[in-house]
């Protein structure tokens, strides 16, 4: 029997993106996290998809923890006022703290920051530092080109095998939460 997932880190954009489905799915993910008794860790901001998922989780009764930096707060992400947000020394410390507090990761659409967070976890999986799973929510096929890039890396022998990775690609928020609730390591 696998380790039960209790806390998920959600990585996503501090903006809303182009399609209304991005925000709708972020809100539903937050609601489902709460309604299924999961805790949530996120980047601490009250903007974009990040603020949407955190607010929905909080409004539905989840315990939500925010982790941010002074620099990020000053530049783009006002701190979510309803949540205790821990301010750490830098972005690498932020990622490490979010990793430590989480049993799994939910990846919503996002930009370079989200991609950086994802590739850090993938690298840790590849070298055997972690087996914590990653659940991609492929809203509007947002992550399809990233998937294609990984397949190209495999086909071009830059990745030996996909067996090292614990990645689950999901089409809907319900599929993400179902995958988390039934995950076996």
Task: From the structure above, extract its key features.
Rossmann fold; 185 residues; alpha/beta; 7 helices; globular; 7 strands
Topology:
Elements: E1 7-11, H1 20-35, E2 39-42, H2 48-59, E3 64-69, H3 70-75, E4 85-88, H4 91-101, E5 104-107, H5 112-126, E6 134-137, H6 144-155, E7 167-170, H7 173-181
Parallel strand pairs: 1-2, 1-5, 2-3, 3-4, 5-6, 6-7
What would your notes on this structure say?
- The protein is α/β, with parallel strands linked by helices and 185 residues long.
- The chain has a single domain, classed as Rossmann fold (3-Layer(aba) Sandwich), CATH 3.40.50.
- The chain has seven helices and seven strands, in the order βαβαβαβαβαβαβα.
- The chain has a seven-stranded parallel β-sheet, with helices on both faces.
- β3 (64-69), α3 (70-75) and β4 form a beta-alpha-beta unit.
- α1 runs parallel beside α2 and α1 (20-35) runs parallel beside α7.
- It is globular, with a radius of gyration of 15 Å.
- The model has no long low-confidence stretch (mean pLDDT 94).
Number of domains: 1
Helical/strand content category: alpha/beta
Query: What spatial form do the alpha-carbon principal axes imply?
Result: globular
Level of helix content? 40-55%
Q: Helix count, per DSSP? A: 7
Q: Averaging pLDDT over every residue, what do you get?
A: 94
Distance separating the two termini? 8 Å
The description of the largest β-sheet is: 7 strands, parallel
Q: What fraction strand?
A: 15-25%
* CATH architecture heading: 3-Layer(aba) Sandwich
CATH topology: Rossmann fold
Radius of gyration, in Å, reads 15 Å
Low-pLDDT residue spans: none
Strand line-up of the largest beta sheet: 4-3-2-1-5-6-7
State the total count of DSSP E strands.
Answer: 7
- Using the coordinates above, name the CATH class: Alpha Beta
Order of helices and strands: EHEHEHEHEHEHEH
